[in-house]
Backbone:
């Protein structure tokens, strides 16, 4: 059985072994994944602690996905037990409880009727449990607010309103010369196109090769059945914050090589990160300094070298 890991909000790396007490050069909160035994560890206060996944997608499938840093609503979310004098009580409330009777007192939005605990539905005027339909409405509103249809092209709302303002000569609250400036066609031109979500640009390099700094902020696609290598450029201070993605589609191994003196996550200076998975794999990197790139996301097994 092959498994994949999806990690969000942490710096992390994939290894063939578990960390030891000698591995102390990692930052606080770093995630170490031993892919041999599918176990994750987090570096906390100088110690390595087993970090269980927050969520397992397709847990019974041939290729489950272990998720850290994100929880999917509506799937594999355990129920909330009610605690009474006799311990944990199941879906039937106090019914069938051995021993003496017990009483649960509810405070809105929780109520208790004949031993059954329930939580009322939320509305716009009262607290309570949110229904699936309410969540879908909220998600649709959030999606609409980020739509590319909200882009504003410079000059798209040009209209001449200067003739629609009535004024009396000499009786204006401001000078007549200023009144005519209320709106002149094109006077509010501004380019807001960069304020909305942008379409991701994909750049194919099926035969590998060099990646220029001008090709950052894109996703490099490599679809090959053989081993291919991409070589990253040198960075200057102005490049800090730039990002780049890699999408491996073919069965061939993909290697990304850093420029001399630059590290990728925990790799050696000028060394590499690679993926030998036969399936689809993704990797996203960000320039942190002129000598350091960090992983911001990915899919599949990626290995650094030093």
Residues:
């Amino acid at each position: 059985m092959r498994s994949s890991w999806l990690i969000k909000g942490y710096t992390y790396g994939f290894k063939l072994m578990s960390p030891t007490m000698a591995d102390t050069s990692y930052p606080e909160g770093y995630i170490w994944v031993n892919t041999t035994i599918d176990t994750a560890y987090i570096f906390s206060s100088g110690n390595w602690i087993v970090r269980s996944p927050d969520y397992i997608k397709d847990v019974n499938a041939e290729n489950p996905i272990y998720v850290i840093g994100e929880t999917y609503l509506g799937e594999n979310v355990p129920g909330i037990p009610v605690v009474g004098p006799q311990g944990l009580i199941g879906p039937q409330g106090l019914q069938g409880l051995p021993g003496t009777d017990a009483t649960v007192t509810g405070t809105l939005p929780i109520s208790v009727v004949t031993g059954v605990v329930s939580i009322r539905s939320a509305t716009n005027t009262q607290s309570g449990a949110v229904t699936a339909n309410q969540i879908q409405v909220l998600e649709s509103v959030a999606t609409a607010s980020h739509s590319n249809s909200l882009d504003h092209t410079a000059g798209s709302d040009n209209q001449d309103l200067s003739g629609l303002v009535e004024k009396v000569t000499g009786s204006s609250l401001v000078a007549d010369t200023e009144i005519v400036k209320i709106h002149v066609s094109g006077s509010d031109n501004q380019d807001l196109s960069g304020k909305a979500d942008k379409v991701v640009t994909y750049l194919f390099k099926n035969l590998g090769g060099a990646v220029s700094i001008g090709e950052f902020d894109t996703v490099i696609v490599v679809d090959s059945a053989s081993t291919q290598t991409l070589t990253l450029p040198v960075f200057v201070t102005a490049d800090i914050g730039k990002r780049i993605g890699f999408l491996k589609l073919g069965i061939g191994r993909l290697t990304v090589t850093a420029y001399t003196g630059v590290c990728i996550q925990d790799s050696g200076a000028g060394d590499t990160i690679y993926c030998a998975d036969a399936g689809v794999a993704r990797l996203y990197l960000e320039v942190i300094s002129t000598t350091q790139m960090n992983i911001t996301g990915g899919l599949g097994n990626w290995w650094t070298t030093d």
Observations:
- Residues 73-100 have pLDDT under 50 and may be disordered.
- The longest helix spans residues 132-145.
- The radius of gyration is 29 Å.
